[in-house]
Design brief:
Layout (H helix, E strand, L loop, with lengths): L7 H11 L7 E5 L3 H13 L4 E5 L12 H5 L20 E4 L4 E5 L4 E4 L4 E3 L2 E4 L3 E3 L12 E3 L3 H13 L2 E5 L3 H10 L5 E6 L10 H14 L1 E5 L3 E6 L3 E6 L4 E3 L2 E4 L3 E3 L2 H5 L8 E2 L11 E3 L4 E2 L8 H15 L19 E5 L2 E7 L5 E7 L4 E8 L2 E8 L5 H10 L5 H10 L19 E3 L4 E2 H9 L5 H8 L9 H8 L11 H20 L13 H8 L1 H21 L1 H4 L8 H23 L6 H25 L6 H35 L1
Parallel strand pairs: 1-2, 1-7, 2-3, 7-19, 9-16, 10-11, 10-16, 11-12, 18-20
Antiparallel strand pairs: 4-5, 5-6, 8-17, 13-14, 14-15, 21-22, 22-25, 23-24, 24-25, 26-27
Pathway: Nitrogen metabolism; nitrate reduction (assimilation)
Keywords: FAD, Flavoprotein, Heme, Iron, Iron-sulfur, Membrane, Metal-binding, Oxidoreductase, Transmembrane, Transmembrane helix
Family: Belongs to the nitrite and sulfite reductase 4Fe-4S domain family.
């Protein structure tokens, strides 16, 4: 980025250091995480004259820490993590990256960075976040024991995933669950270990059982309820020992064992602290000119470890700081936040919404589809929910729980029968929802705000996100935003999706021609061109096309080894799928050349029908994979799984029929 030290703003800031009087306020934000960035953005929006200075301790430009699990699992690119301060700031913003603040002088109202540079402030916001909690267990200092907190940690884990055979993820909170699923590949073994239950037991016994089954289906092994006593090894960690006396061999350990609020700076300058930096309803610390927000702040003896409460705190804090610039605007005090948990483990959504402990519970379960849905109702009103697996009513449900909407006996009866709280006929897509419908729960962005931005020319996901902040936190609302734009969400599109879709449709067209086209005449015709005569009637060219077809079949079958043979790791699976579809399409072209649109009789007819059926189901699987971004997970899994099984079953019969066909041709 540009050297801000030479900018006019920086010159003004240096002048301010020598003079305590100024016509404009200077607001300093310490921390470039999502909450710190949100504070800087709101301060610029709420004040036309304030100068905002933001300091970050990390070497990377501001990025969205919430999306690191999605980046680890290859659902997002590095560019998708970018989290700049958005909006027009007219040169009133100064950003300093890799400039850790080491001291706060409350008397002179200045902060000092690690290089000794001094920055004055009128108001100071501490958004210092948290640090990983490393358990006090012997051996956690080995070099192959990794925390998972920053972008740098994530890059380490991406390299670790490719070279390790057995990774043990310690901690079964939201981060541990997402990390275990993201680290699992076809070529490694991942064990999720925790001394307590999944998500700290918030799910309940039955829901936790469903989640355990889903993790097992992904290939993640579980070791729950047995505490680690030591990690042993030589130069690196090799073995984990448990309180039960068991031991686990591993070649890498990932710690997702919680976080500690980063309060060092606050303690050094004498602010009141407990678990976090103690704040009031305006997020002010014991010094009224210093505020604290996010994971480092403690409000009402609560420290929140999710980003949505941090955003709510940033709103109250910024409004309170800028209240003199907006005399007509009523600042809202912070009153605490819901502790909702929402995560996506691979393709499996999981959420705990509202209060699920106290009330009457209603449950819908479908073992075949891996669905579990639980509603908690108190005094006839929705107060909480738990679900495992996709739920098309999830967004509407979150709003209903937040508003404490009434749940009628008829609706609860329908829920127990089919898992839907609202009538399917009444279910509406995002386009049919009213303008006040909240699309982005994390940032409180409504459909009306999104439609306004679209009408102003924001016609792609990135532009819309920058204009409204929708989809910039967890990303779960991006499919809804994409639906408004009539485009697929790019983070859901597999590699080579367009190419696989085209080759799949071409394959289906060739199959239709092979079945419907009239067969070439048996005898040579004067109307036939010489090249058709050679291909269809010359014995040499018949053998060339026949063996080419056999070679295509063997090559196509060998490509499936990439998915099933752990030692074969070269290239991304999507690249192999694309090559697989191209070869399958090529095999159909050779089949037409070899048979001349003749289906044959008896055994040859059976061989042709099986081959065409196998390629048909394979092409349909390709269509479903390529269109993943347009269908829900459940719909995709139902169709793709069924066609895949039929495809595999047909492929097993082909070698026998081909062998008999070749034997019959040469024998007779």
């Amino acid at each position: 980025m540009a050297e801000l030290e030479d900018s006019p703003l920086q010159q003004q800031l240096r002048d301010r250091t020598a003079s305590t009087e100024s016509d404009y306020p200077i607001y300093v934000v310490v921390g470039t995480g999502p909450v710190g960035v949100r504070c800087a953005q709101r301060l610029l929006e709420l004040s036309d004259e304030a100068q905002v200075v933001i300091f970050g301790a990390e070497a990377e430009s501001p990025y969205n820490r919430v999306k690191l699990s999605q980046y680890l699992s290859d659902q997002l690119s590095l560019a998708d993590l970018d989290n700049p301060v958005l909006g027009q700031n007219d040169g009133r913003l100064a950003e300093f990256i890799d400039r850790k603040i080491v001291a706060v002088d409350r008397n002179n109202k200045t902060v000092t960075d690690a290089a000794g540079n001094i920055q004055p402030y009128d108001k100071l916001i501490l958004a210092t976040g948290s640090t990983p909690a490393i358990p006090q267990i012997p051996g956690t200092d080995f070099p192959n024991v990794y925390p998972f907190r920053s972008l740098r940690n994530t890059e380490d884990l991406i390299r670790l995933r490719e070279r390790s055979h057995h990774i043990c993820v310690v901690g079964a909170g939201a981060l541990g669950l997402e990390a275990a699923a993201a680290l699992k590949t076809q070529n490694n073994r991942v064990t999720l270990q925790s001394r307590t239950r999944l998500l700290g037991g918030l799910l309940g016994d039955e829901a936790e059982g469903y989640l355990q089954s889903s993790l097992a289906a992904l290939g993640v092994e579980l070791s729950i309820g047995d505490a680690i006593t030591a990690v042993e090894g030589d130069e690196v960690a090799r073995e984990i020992h448990f309180a039960s006396g068991k031991a686990l061999q591993t070649d890498a350990i990932v710690l997702c064992t919680g976080i500690h609020p980063e309060i060092t700076l606050a303690q050094q300058c004498g602010l009141d602290t407990a678990r976090g930096i103690v704040v009031n309803k305006w997020l002010q610390t014991s010094d009224p000119d210093i505020y604290a927000v996010g994971e480092c702040a403690e409000f009402g003896r609560d420290v929140y470890q999710f980003v949505r409460p941090g955003y709510e705190q940033a709103e109250s804090c910024s409004e309170h700081i800028c209240r003199r610039h907006n005399p007509g605007r009523q600042a809202k005090p912070y009153q605490g936040s819901y502790r909702d948990i929402q995560l996506k483990i691979a393709h499996i959504p999981c959420a705990v919404i509202g209060d699920v402990d106290d009330g009457e519970q209603y449950v819908y379960r479908n073992r075949f589809k891996g669905l579990y849905r639980q509603l908690t109702v108190r005094d006839g009103r929705l107060c909480g929910a738990v679900y495992i697996g996709s739920w098309d009513e999830a967004s509407q449900l979150r709003q209903a729980v937040a508003a404490g909407e009434a749940a009628t006996p008829r609706a609860l009866k329908r829920f127990a029968q089919d898992g839907h709280l609202w009538q399917k006929s009444a279910a509406r897509g995002i386009k049919e929802q009213p303008d006040h419908y909240l699309v982005c729960q994390c940032n409180g962005v409504s459909k009306g705000e999104l439609c306004t931005a679209i009408s102003q020319g924001k016609r792609n996901l990135m532009d819309l996100q920058q204009a409204t902040t929708a989809g910039s936190v967890c990303g779960s609302c991006r499919p809804l935003i994409a639906e408004l734009l009539d485009v697929p969400a790019p983070n859901l599109v597999m590699r080579h999706a367009r190419g696989i879709l085209i080759t799949s449709f071409v394959s289906l067209l060739l199959i239709a021609l092979a079945v419907l086209m009239p067969p070439a005449p048996i005898s040579e015709s004067v109307q036939s061109h010489w090249y058709w005569q050679k291909l269809w009637y010359d014995n040499f060219w018949k053998q060339v096309s026949g063996y080419s077809l056999l070679g295509f079949c063997l090559l196509t079958a060998s490509l499936s080894l990439r998915k099933r043979w752990r030692k074969l790791t070269h290239g991304h699976v999507d690249h192999w799928r694309y090559v697989h579809s191209l070869i399958g399409c090529g095999a159909l072209i050779v089949l037409v050349v070899h048979t001349g649109f003749r289906l044959g009789e008896n055994l040859n007819l059976a061989l042709m029908l099986v081959f065409l059926a196998a390629t048909t189901t394979g092409a349909l699987v390709g269509v479903f994979m390529a269109r993943n971004h347009h269908w829900t997970d459940i719909k995709l899994r139902e169709h793709r799984k069924w066609w895949s099984r039929v495809h595999y079953a047909l492929l097993w019969t082909l070698p026998v029929l081909l062998a008999y066909h070749i034997l019959a041709v040469y024998y007779f």
